[in-house]
Amino acid sequence: MLSQQSLNTFTEPPVEMARERNQTSFNPRLLTYFLDGGEKNTLLMDRLMQEYERDPVFRNEGDYDITDVAQSRELAFKRIAKLIEYVHTDDEETYLYRCMLLGQIDMGAFARYAIHHGVWGGAIRGAGTPEQYEFWVKKGSLSVKKFYGSFSMTELGHGSNLVGLETTATLDKNADEFVINTPNVAATKWWIGGAADTATHTAVFARLIVDGEDHGVKTFVVQLRDVETHNLMPGIAIGDCGKKMGRQGTDNGWIQFTHVRIPRQNMLMRYCHVDSDGNVTEPMMAQMAYGALLAGRVGMAMDSYFTSRKFLTIALRYATIRRAFAAGGGQETKLIDYPYHQRRLLPLMAQTYAIKCTADKVRDQFVKVTDMLLNLDVSDQEAVPKAIAEAKELFSVSAGVKATTTWACAHTIDQCRQACGGHGYSAYNGFGRAYSDWVIQCTWEGDNNILCLSAGRALVQSNRAVRAGKPIGGPTAYLAAPAGSPKLAGRNLYDPKVMIGAWETVSRALINRTTDEFEVLAKKGLSTAQAYEELSQQRFLCTRIHTRLYMVKNFYERIAEEGTEFTKEPLTRLANLYAFWSVEEEAGIFLREGYITPQELKYISAEIRKQLLEVRKDVIGYTDAFNVPDFFLNSAIGRADGDVYKNYFKVVNTQNPPQDPRPPYYESVIRPFLFRKDEDEEICSLEDE
Amino acid sequence: MLSQQSLNTFTEPPVEMARERNQTSFNPRLLTYFLDGGEKNTLLMDRLMQEYERDPVFRNEGDYDITDVAQSRELAFKRIAKLIEYVHTDDEETYLYRCMLLGQIDMGAFARYAIHHGVWGGAIRGAGTPEQYEFWVKKGSLSVKKFYGSFSMTELGHGSNLVGLETTATLDKNADEFVINTPNVAATKWWIGGAADTATHTAVFARLIVDGEDHGVKTFVVQLRDVETHNLMPGIAIGDCGKKMGRQGTDNGWIQFTHVRIPRQNMLMRYCHVDSDGNVTEPMMAQMAYGALLAGRVGMAMDSYFTSRKFLTIALRYATIRRAFAAGGGQETKLIDYPYHQRRLLPLMAQTYAIKCTADKVRDQFVKVTDMLLNLDVSDQEAVPKAIAEAKELFSVSAGVKATTTWACAHTIDQCRQACGGHGYSAYNGFGRAYSDWVIQCTWEGDNNILCLSAGRALVQSNRAVRAGKPIGGPTAYLAAPAGSPKLAGRNLYDPKVMIGAWETVSRALINRTTDEFEVLAKKGLSTAQAYEELSQQRFLCTRIHTRLYMVKNFYERIAEEGTEFTKEPLTRLANLYAFWSVEEEAGIFLREGYITPQELKYISAEIRKQLLEVRKDVIGYTDAFNVPDFFLNSAIGRADGDVYKNYFKVVNTQNPPQDPRPPYYESVIRPFLFRKDEDEEICSLEDE
What we know:
Butyryl-CoA Dehydrogenase, subunit A, domain 2; six-stranded mixed beta sheet; AcylCoA_DH/oxidase_NM_dom_sf (chains A, B); AcylCo_DH-like_C (chains A, B); fatty acid binding (chains A, B); FAD (chains A, B)
């Protein structure tokens, strides 16, 4: 080890990083097992990450300098092709993990494949009959042979409001065909991932028209391109949506259908059946046809974990070696030792652990509901309502969780970037690209604001059910539980029961208040829709608080279930930090509901400060536990060894090798300007008369 | 006018936009005069905007598809060159406006020129003697002939903490020269705008070393490149910082100095003088040497206005023609008619008006202080302390305002993007690029977090001065004023005195509380630095609330001073909305300080709702008043005529003309993959023994 004296700003960081790592009070590997859901999963992830790292197609050091859209798309497709090679050799779970990891290297490639595999695949599996699913699998859907699927939902003029879509699918009984048509330019299918370059087929959301009657939006499979030549099929017009804010690897396009004919059998008929005579049968499950979107939401909570952990690892490692100012005179202080820097980043780290616990919970629920739906006999009068209830609950929980976690992740990327100062703005540290790639998660597959409003409506509905004496279960069960103490009243914050109780009480109070207001409005004669509209701000708030409660609870419960003698303490520290900080963040609500006093709020802030100091000691352990290899970080300042300046200097100079001091446009632009002649100041003289 | 029946999703928008515009209750032009500070300024802006729009160098419809860094830089330089042609023909104010408008077209080009004109220029003017300033102007600094300046402040290992910079400037008395040197790699000058491609000279922040004694950081002019050949000067090493998150038009580079010799006269000596014998004279004004940074901060508040108004115009116009869902059944509702959508965007619009009032206020103060400093006799024992006090106050006010407004603008761009749903993610609507270009404003020239902490410290210091019976003035004068009512207690919210009083009371309470805590810590024996460190969260909060108060106050006062019979009403509506909404945003503090009760908070929220409904009616008028021509918006969905879908469809298709359905990598990548052979499943047989 180098002696302290020989260290300077440039050489000190790796030495300090090793020292910080050595002082960790726990074994980070055990926290990794906790986060991953067991050692087995960690080992699987390790293996898959190594496979990616060694594969030349995934070499990513040059990724930040790829700016050309076509080049991004080509690289993304190569990566997708490589991934698909494993579809038949991996077991299902391994393949799922492999897909998720692709998102950690190239979000554009991941989205492009997820649209085929998850969304198109989910549509034919979820909305198609088993026979229809088999048919498209045989056509090459799963193995991606002579076939690439896409999903044509949104239109230029309609996004979130699916029931307003304008594309039509009119049954022609004589031909036993549907005619798919785009009635006006605003009905052009827009943002269709895969359409611009790749897709041979697409699942189209269109209005089912039979005998002049509009049966609402159903799903139809339409072939876009000739499989052999990749030429467009008759009646299909496709254009390129072009440059986006991020995810250039996904080839989004627009599609117009001009009287395109498809066999009647191309309508996906699990939940709605049309026979050759034009009889339309819709069992009560029709609303489940949108189920294809659920997988995406659930996956985005998981993605929020993966992406948040990455940028927290970078910013916290950097904070641990970067020094600035001298808080007490003498040697400059590490950023991480500033109380304010701790407060900016460490709660976000705790939140990231909380996100994982919640993402796992929602995924388990999703797997359960999906299995139930796939195995459901749609004529079973008893099973169907139960399935609908469970699916609805999942819709509502996943809506709040998707919105909360994707926003949290966007905020985390942004905060971490700012915490790295100017170096956060370098492309080579990864923040810029990640933010631009990430934020569409807050909009697609359910705009976050709309999801929160809709989840808020569901919370009020559940509460009205409680008031009507109906049983409710799942994450809203506390609404029916006997109310606990309406005040914190000096109870022990460090008792998870107290903390969870606090959140339940405040969330319940808020939902009760909103339900009361709803009932007043209803009595005034407003329609249900109008009353909910009036209460949008309140609904939004209900979702925000309820979801935060859900996350606090899941974190504590997961520790109770899976924590060990080695991990319980460091994890509980984080859970407490997360729960206390969340109260501080929502102090306005806690004060308003009279749950805490200003004095107690001050006490909570002081306890947060104590937790921060404790957590700070192990900050390298906690971030190492995220288990993100340098290759996946792909960030010059985030390296595990802490040799930040050396690595960053090297990366910048490798990507920008020494060049002529005269840039390419020197002779043509710079020199002529710097050496321009003085303006001609002679003017024609006129004799004034 | 088209009949209602012939309108569909595609054709309705322009008709609706015209209808909305017609219903405006005021003359938007009069609000423009208010915002611009008078008709004269508006006419000047109109003229300059037209000149930009007509000049081919500024044609911007292709800007979003430029991805190549070198191409961005070349275009940026062409634009700068064009701007500079006006430097001698424009009067100073016109040129300033012209510069600001460049930032509305190309933030990268603007930054690159601002570094030369504002920062380098500001350094030689502010830190150089009048003779030194004249010398560099004669060399071509102002006209940019055979000369391009830059500013070498930050190093790889040091940013915000200027006193920790490691580059040295050692006086060699024998040669009457300074030797500029980079002692280790972490001391490499980093992020130097203009260094990579353009700069011939630079102002270097380096430690003045005379006879082995370190006199701290001063400014030295160093030549980087030979003027004739653009080759690097001896001892100068320059590299390219490469790709950034945004602002690719600025050519940031790194610089290492290896024993580079400069004449002693190249030290900028207004505030610190070194003679040929090595005598160092530092009048009390030494701290003013950082004054060059002030102009940047003040300009960024103005920039925040320019940029916020642009994206609010886009998002609010879009919200006025976009329909989704049917709140009351029947025709779909416009986004702007959803209470939640109003709440998301309209307060940000009001805030943007408030930002302008505050930016003007701070700029006036800046002009005053700058003039005072430039005309100051540094030996005047009476004038100097007064000047220092005024400059300090400006430092602190501008710190809070810079942080608050640049964050507000980043948030506004982001919220506006999300409010446009998926179309917000298209490059052609401008949000992505603007966000990436913008956010560095929150970091450079004083990291926002550090600025807030430092402004918070100044607030506590002012308050301690008040307690010590010293007079204070300016924006903190209310700290010394007699306390008003400690509670809202049912007074009239619509009386600006009440609203301003509310903010003053809460801000004063917060600063008092923090000052109390400071004194407790000091009594416990903590050093001043340690005590402030402990109180960082509180300091941050003090700045946040004090700055918000300042903005609320400036808005009301400007209306009182400059509002007319035609504009007072619509402006007051916005000011009320901004003030009330700000209380709601900071409800936690207002409740904690006991200024309002939960019941009053509910009332305030209800009043916000009322204001929103009023403001909504005139939303097109309020955004038209921002007076941003379509050319400057450069956003397919933001057009004034509201013909959103047609325009957007056209722009996307112009930028991405119809192409072969087979993308360039079809034959090489896609086809071989889709048509790959099944894996060879035959395996060599081994006879098991």
